[in-house]
UniProtKB/TrEMBL annotation:
Contains a C-terminal catalytic domain, and an N-terminal region which modulates catalytic activity. It comes from Tropicimonas isoalkanivorans. This is Protein-glutamate methylesterase/protein-glutamine glutaminase. NCBIfam families: PRK00742.1 (NF001965). The gene is cheB. It is an enzyme of class 3 (hydrolase). It comes from the Bacteria.
Length: 343
């Protein structure tokens, strides 16, 4: 059965481009279009679509305000379309945090192939599961003593909200955390800036070779680079660096590249695989588990898209399948120094 789509965008030409792209794919019925949110509200009520494409910047009511109302009153899978300017990227990250399934950069003039994967991503969104959105927990006030393990997290579709929820529960002295999130470079910059205002540990994009330190979260910058863990050491500290390698599984940054780089030190890392389409990270997680790593995957019920974790489970790469609301505590359990029993 074809997926029913409503297109919401104030640009007639952009609506036409999206319409043409989705119809050519053959898996969609375009059941309605709207140029602004008040019109969209009526169209959605009349057509009951499976998925909506939604522009961020529109007249009368911006896309974020409309999205927030939609997720509160009538949750439905939404794919946001935004420019990759700083302002547009920040709005896109806000949208993903509010519950949008995916966000796609609008094509610039002279970029006819910019929406090449639009149909696939809209189809994935139409099939996505929208889990209940529990309130975020405050950072733990309990004392945490690091045991020297580094946390490696991979995520794709649905990952922005999942990562924010996990990191909001991390104490200021959290274990070092490296993240590979599938997202364009401009969106990743805005994501790092958003997290830096909302979580206790310090957050930034990885730049060159850096020491791994407690209380520090580094995100792969994307674009031309992967993020990898290195066996080299500066003093007594491990390091990470950027790798200008080819795309892996169609992605750069790639979760598999990050995970595979840690195989020589598998017993000293905690790999975590979150919601996302495809299989990126599953093979790397399998290699890490074979070498002794305790691995964590987000469970089916709490994933927006149970793709990457599902493949990892099927490969036998997962030590624990954990609901999103308990992943932070599972990470802290694996990275906390255990008190020695009194003799």
């Amino acid at each position: 059965m074809k997926k029913r789509v409503v297109i919401v965008d104030d640009s007639r030409s952009m609506r036409g481009l999206i319409h043409q792209c989705l119809l050519a794919d053959g898996r969609f019925d375009i059941v309605g279009e709207a140029s602004e949110p008040f019109e969209a509200r009526a169209v959605i009520r009349e057509t009951n679509p499976d998925v909506i494409t939604l522009d961020v910047e529109m007249p009368r009511m911006d896309g974020l305000t409309f999205l927030e109302k939609l997720m509160r009153l009538r949750p439905i899978p939404v794919v946001m379309l935004s420019t990759e300017t700083h302002r547009g990227s920040a709005a896109a990250i806000e949208a993903l945090s509010l519950g949008a399934v995916d966000c796609i950069g609008k094509p610039r003039a002279g970029e006819p192939g910019a929406l090449a994967d639009l149909a696939e991503r809209v189809f994935v969104a139409a099939c996505a599961h929208l889990p209940s959105r529990e309130p975020r927990a405050a950072p733990s006030s309990a004392a945490f003593r690091w045991n020297g393990k580094t946390v490696l997290i991979g995520a794709s579709t649905g990952g922005v909200d999942a990562l924010e929820r996990i990191l909001c529960e991390m104490p200021a002295n959290a274990p070092p955390i490296l993240i590979a999130q599938h997202m364009p470079k401009g969106f990743l910059e805005s994501f790092a800036e958003r997290l830096s205002r909302r979580i206790a540990p310090k957050v930034g994009l990885a730049r060159g070779r850096e020491e791994l330190q407690p209380g520090r979260v580094l995100i792969a910058p994307g674009g031309a680079h992967h993020l990898v863990l290195t066996t080299e050491r500066v003093g007594a500290k491990s390091t990470c660096r950027l790798d200008p390698g080819e795309k892996c599984n169609g992605h750069r940054p790639s979760v598999d590249v990050l995970f595979r780089s840690a195989v020589p030190m598998a017993s000293r890392v905690v790999p975590v695989l979150l919601t996302g389409m495809g299989r990126d990270g599953a093979d790397g997680m399998m290699r890490l588990r074979r070498e002794g790593a305790e691995t964590i995957a987000q469970d089916r019920a709490s994933c927006v898209v149970y793709g990457m974790p599902r493949v990892a489970v099927e490969l036998g790469a997962v030590s624990q399948s954990v609901p999103l609301g308990r992943i932070a505590s599972a990470i802290l359990e694996q990275t906390s120094a255990k008190e020695r029993a009194a003799t």
